[in-house]
Amino acid sequence: xxxxxxxxxxxxxxxxxxxxxxxxxxxxxxxxxxxxxxxxxxxxxxxxxxxxxxxxxxxxxxxxxxxxxxxxxxxxxxxxxxxxxxxxxxxxxxxxxxxxxxxxxxxxxxxxxxxxxxxxxxxxxxxxxxxxxxxxxxxxxxxxxxxxxxxxxxxxxxxxxxxxxxxxxxxxxxxxxxxxxxxxxxxxxxxxxxxxxxxxxxxxxxxxxxxxxxxxxxxxxxxxxxxxxxxxxxxxxxxxxxxxxxxxxxxxxxxxxxxxxxxxxxxxx
Length: 269
Prior knowledge:
Layout: E1 4-9, H1 25-38, E2 42-45, H2 59-71, E3 75-79, H3 88-91, E4 100-106, E5 110-112, E6 115-117, H4 121-133, E7 137-142, H5 145-156, E8 164-170, H6 180-189, E9 194-200, H7 207-215, E10 219-222, H8 238-251, E11 255-256, H9 259-266
Parallel strand pairs: 1-2, 1-10, 1-11, 2-3, 3-4, 4-7, 7-8, 8-9, 9-10
Antiparallel strand pairs: 5-6
């Protein structure tokens, strides 16, 4: 049983301006700092512009991380993902950020809504190289069972060193739909020296988060990038989501990891 659970936060919804969606560096940093104090230990951030759209201009991203680091020790995870027309090189720009310690690494392509979310093998090799160059630990994001085969290839060829961190991504259309039997299959497919967390799209409660923890997840994620509401608790803010899932995790007998504890669990620099 993992006594410490990493609570990750993805605070910005990808739909741009909307109710309670933080967009400016000041708004994002304020919410991240509040959520750190409430128990979050890792924040997942994309490079976005003033309208919340993914961009190759990382000035907002850099300013946001600077403001966060001034008042919070939360782990900053730089995303190389997101459905966009950016090149693989442009998607890697956040990895140059001096505050980034963790990097989200998509391990394959998939149909996503009406588009194709493209993560080619040469792109994956390039992103791993950039993470290694910047001393950033990759978190391999799995949207399909075939993506674990690519993870095994990356490990066999020495691109990624142990320990290995994974996130299983569920319930994004048309990705994997969550079920406990499927989760067990995914866990059984992982290489040795692996640990894993979960991300759920469009969730309106924490039931699947808690089921995953009981099966061995070391990390769960909440925030506006995944869902803006939790109907079970009538909350519609990032802080509210963090506060409510903390209560439910602690009711199971687990505690949330501090940022420093999370760094040790994830083997960060």
